[in-house]
C-alpha cells in the first residue's frame, strides 16, 4: 500500500486544480507528473529488456544474432512494439517539457538559487540529460535500426544467413568516436535515471520519513547499474575482450 502523509495529496490536488481551473488529468501538475512517472516506468522496463538482449554479445555471434533474428521474425508485431515505445517516449518528453516550463514560470529568483544549491546533480540536469538522451536514441535508431548512418557496418550476413548484428556492433564500437558518443550518452542516461527513478516513488506516493533515505538511494544505484551494463559493451570491444569473428573485417 502506498505510504503518504494523510491529506497531503488532497491538498496538492486542490491547489493545482485551483491554479489550472480544471480537473483534467493532463491539465493539473499532479496529473502530468503521474503521466511522466508511468511513461518513465514503461521506458525503464524497455531499457532493462534491451540491456539483457544486448549483453548476449558476450556469448559471441551466435546468441546475439539468434536474438536479433527472433525479433525480426515477429514481423509486423515488432513494429507495433516499436511504434508503441516511440509513442510512450514522445508523451514522456512532451509532458516533462510542459512541467519544466511550468516550474520555471512558478519559481522566484531567490527560491530558485536556494533550490539549486540543495538539489542533486541528477535533479538539476534532468531536462538537459533527457534531451541529450532523446537525441542519442534517434542517432542509435539511425545507426542500428534504420542503418542510414555508418552504413559501412551494415548489410552483413552470418554463416546462417542471418543479419550479422554481432559484427555490426563490434565493428562500430571499434571506432573510438562511435564508442565515445555511446559511452557519453549512457553516462547521461544513468544520471537521468538516478533522479527520475527516485522521483517516481514520490509521485506515486511511496514516501515515508522512515524510508525516505533508503528510497533516495534507489535511483542513483539503479542509474549506475544500468549505465555500467550498457557501458560494458563498448569498453569490452575497445579493450579487445569482445572481437570480430575470424575473417571479418571492416574498412
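^ Assign residues to that structure.
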Amino acid at each position: 500500500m502506498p505510504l503518504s502523509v494523510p491529506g497531503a495529496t488532497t491538498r496538492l490536488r486542490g491547489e493545482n486544480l485551483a491554479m489550472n481551473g480544471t480537473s483534467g488529468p493532463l491539465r493539473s501538475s499532479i496529473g502530468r507528473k503521474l503521466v511522466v512517472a508511468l511513461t518513465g516506468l514503461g521506458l525503464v522496463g524497455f531499457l532493462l529488456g534491451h540491456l539483457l538482449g544486448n549483453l548476449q554479445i558476450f556469448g559471441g555471434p551466435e546468441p546475439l544474432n539468434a536474438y536479433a533474428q527472433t525479433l525480426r521474425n515477429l514481423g509486423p508485431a515488432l513494429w507495433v512494439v516499436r511504434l508503441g515505445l516511440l509513442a510512450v517516449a514522445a508523451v514522456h518528453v512532451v509532458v516533462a517539457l510542459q512541467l519544466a516550463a511550468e516550474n520555471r514560470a512558478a519559481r522566484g529568483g531567490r527560491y530558485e538559487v536556494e533550490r539549486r544549491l540543495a538539489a542533486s546533480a541528477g535533479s538539476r540536469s534532468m531536462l538537459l540529460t533527457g534531451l541529450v538522451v532523446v537525441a542519442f536514441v534517434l542517432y542509435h535508431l539511425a545507426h542500428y535500426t534504420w542503418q542510414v548512418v555508418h552504413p559501412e557496418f551494415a548489410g552483413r550476413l552470418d554463416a546462417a544467413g542471418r543479419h550479422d548484428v554481432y559484427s555490426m556492433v563490434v565493428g562500430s564500437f571499434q571506432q573510438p568516436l562511435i564508442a565515445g558518443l555511446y559511452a557519453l550518452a549512457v553516462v547521461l542516461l544513468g544520471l537521468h535515471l538516478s533522479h527520475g527513478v527516485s522521483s517516481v516513488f514520490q509521485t506515486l506516493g511511496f514516501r515515508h520519513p522512515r524510508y525516505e533515505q533508503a528510497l533516495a538511494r534507489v535511483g542513483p544505484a539503479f542509474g549506475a547499474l544500468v549505465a555500467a551494463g550498457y557501458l560494458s559493451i563498448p569498453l569490452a570491444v575497445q579493450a579487445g575482450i569482445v572481437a570480430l569473428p575470424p575473417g571479418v573485417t571492416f574498412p
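DSSP finds ten helices and no strands in the chain.
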